[in-house]
Model the fold of this input.
Amino acid sequence: MTQLTGSTALVTGSTSGIGRAIAETLARLGAHVIVSGRDSSRGDEVVSGIRADGGKADFVSADLSHAAGVHSLAEQATGVTGRVDVLVNNAGIYTFGPTAEATEADFDRMYNVNVKAPYLLVGELAPLMASRGTGAIVNVTTGAAVKGIPTGGLYGSSKAALDLLTKAWAAEFGPSGVRVNGVSPGPTYTPGTEAMGEGAIDSFATGIPASRVGEPHEIASAVAYLASTDASFVHGAVLAVDGGYAVV
Ligand SMILES: NC(=O)c1ccc[n+]([C@@H]2O[C@H](COP(=O)([O-])OP(=O)(O)OC[C@H]3O[C@@H](n4cnc5c(N)ncnc54)[C@H](OP(=O)(O)O)[C@@H]3O)[C@@H](O)[C@H]2O)c1
Done:
């Protein structure tokens, strides 16, 4: 795959799971990676691992559940090398449950992190990429955004918004040289899915073509492809990396 040497990549939610694998993969391709999340001890661990492998990384702490946290991340991330060339909107929360049991606070938390934060971050960083005439944005969505899961209305709808934003931003920023795409993972083993309880994530893989749950590095390689110039003619695509989850 084409190297990312010389570029700076901000990966939100890279203290854990899929985001961590994305950060490690982009660093192996030569990008200077900005690792981000709320948990600085997990963030420092990811940064140390990347540096130990000869890569470049820094941690910027951010809470993306409110606008001030998003603004602070945009500002601090840009300050690390002076620019952000690749933005991966990966940070996300997922809870499942009946509509009647979700509180207004649950709704706001989900939409703040999954929709509002990427929206505001792109609003801050994409115009800077556009002014340089180059950049790549990859949104991490989910197969649950295209399926009617009885307990998945809140989560799925938040990511369906991100699917649509992927297309709208491709139309908005593509003509200025900024490619915007998405990756839609299927069920994947991460600390987040582990916390859902024993066997919970495995149940999502029952009957899918791959007959198994995915691993974070399998999602990360698709993100790396879309971030690299190998995908130079790919705009507004949401690539399903889901073991066939969404097609059955
Ligand atoms: N795993 C799956 O099966 C699966 C399937 C489809 C889509 N996805 C999507 O893939 C992405 C990553 O999922 P994962 O399974 O890797 O999750 P995870 O292991 O729970 O990690 C979530 C990441 O998001 C960060 N995050 C959460 N809330 C945040 C906040 N308020 N502010 C800043 N960062 C925050 C966490 O960092 P801190 O804890 O340090 O704040 C962590 O780095 C999510 O967008 C998810 O919807 C996952």
Remarks:
- The beta strands are 8-11, 32-37, 56-61, 86-89, 135-140, 178-185, 238-241.
- The chain has a mean pLDDT of 98.
